Amino acid sequence: GSGKVNVWGCITPNGIGWLYCINGNMNSLQYIHILESASAKPGYYELPKLYCLLTGYTKNKWIFQQDNDSKHNSHVMKNLLEFGISCIYVPMWPPSLPDLSPIENAWDYLEKQVKKQQQQPKNTDELWAALEEEWNWPSFSKYVKRLYESVPACMEKLLEAGGLWTKY
Length: 168
What we know:
Elements: E1 6-12, E2 15-22, H1 28-40, H2 48-55, E3 62-63, H3 75-84, E4 88-89, H4 102-116, H5 124-135, H6 138-160
Parallel strand pairs: 3-4
Antiparallel strand pairs: 1-2
């Protein structure tokens, strides 16, 4: 097989952000470096830090959703998000709620698209190239937008079900 690559990606209601290949396992300092690198990449103003810092925008807070992984909740990361970037709101998030986490569905879709490719990746470099290619297709960005559009209906179904399982 092609092996395995670790990636970090950013998606927004307006479509995709940056996809970043991670060497080895990510720790909290590498995670912060990725966020800083992503926010400095030209054309990716969607990442809140860059937008907030360059414009001084503070009227509304951006919601920055991440799971409860230890690197996301490290002391350094919490300080950065709480004191370093004033226009970001990081809500408390349940440990496993894929229906309200568009990125989880996006990862699943991306994996399926790579598996559909006629020429399957033979190594990690080819796998990274295939992931990056699928990530940058306009159809993937449209899919991500539809995921965000589905969140209100999903929330309604979850509320109707008292927070229990839904077919969503």
